[in-house]
Design goal:
Blueprint (H helix, E strand, L loop, with lengths): L12 H13 L8 H24 L19 H26 L4 H27 L32 H55 L16
Helix pairs in contact: 2-3, 2-4, 3-4, 3-5, 4-5
């Protein structure tokens, strides 16, 4: 009668724990498709410009320095609508374009690509704003160009000649008084305008970040809720 031996060598528990620890510490990186990101960033930048020009063409945003945002409560409803929609949907398009070109099928790397699109587009907006194109991006992005610290757009009256009449002197004094009053009011309003411009620029940038992440998420095709990862199936 042949007896079969069933005693197999037992695995060392300490070695198993070390193997698990090594596997856990191994990096699982996400690849970044820079071609898709650059195209998405350019798409977002182009859409910001399109929304801004439409806002200017419809009169919702005026380009003159006298139309500074001194009081946010006095902003027109159409200016707010165009600013919010332009900042948000421009980057939704950019994130979606990047996600589709990269062909990402998972929500997490798609959202990452959308956020990197925002990171690429923000320096482009800053450079073009510094070159003088900030007002073309709409009311909220105008704060990126530092227009609030511009010099007062008022012309000082020309001095009178020695043969000026009494009426001309009186008119000159009235114009000079009005000029000084306007410059004083301009200087008093500058801190408020600086604060409101910065607030608008921050709001536009944060809306763009949210939009780019959502756009990338939409591009992957996965259900847009935060519990989907628990029931998702493997992708082959």
């Amino acid at each position: 009668m042949v007896t079969m031996q069933t005693d197999y060598p037992k695995t060392n528990l300490k070695n198993r724990e070390e193997d698990v620890e090594v596997r856990h510490e191994k990096w699982a990186h996400w690849s970044v498709n820079w071609t898709a990101i650059w195209i998405g960033g350019l798409a977002a930048f182009s859409m910001v410009l399109v929304f801004g020009l439409v806002e200017v063409a419809l009169g919702a945003h005026l380009l003159g320095p006298e139309q500074r945002a001194v009081d946010v409560k006095k902003l027109g409803i159409w200016a707010v609508i165009f600013s919010v929609c332009g900042a948000f949907f421009s980057f939704v398009i950019g994130g979606w374009v990047a996600g589709k070109i990269a062909g990402i099928l998972r929500a997490e790397p798609a959202m990452l690509h959308g956020a990197v699109v925002w990171l690429v587009a923000v320096p482009i907006l800053l450079v073009t704003s510094a070159l003088g194109a900030a007002n073309l991006f709409g009311g909220w992005y105008a704060g990126l160009g530092g227009t609030s610290i511009a010099s007062a757009p008022f012309n000082r009256p020309d001095p009178l000649g020695p043969s000026a009449t009494a009426a001309e002197v009186a008119t000159y004094d009235a114009q000079l008084t009005e000029y000084h009053r306007n410059v004083k009011q301009w200087n008093e309003d500058t801190p408020k305008v600086t604060r409101n411009s910065a607030l608008g620029a921050v709001s536009a940038l944060l809306l763009g970040l949210v939009g780019s992440v959502i756009g990338g998420w939409m591009a992957c095709g996965e259900p847009m809720h935060f519990t989907h990862y628990r029931t998702r199936k493997p992708v082959y």
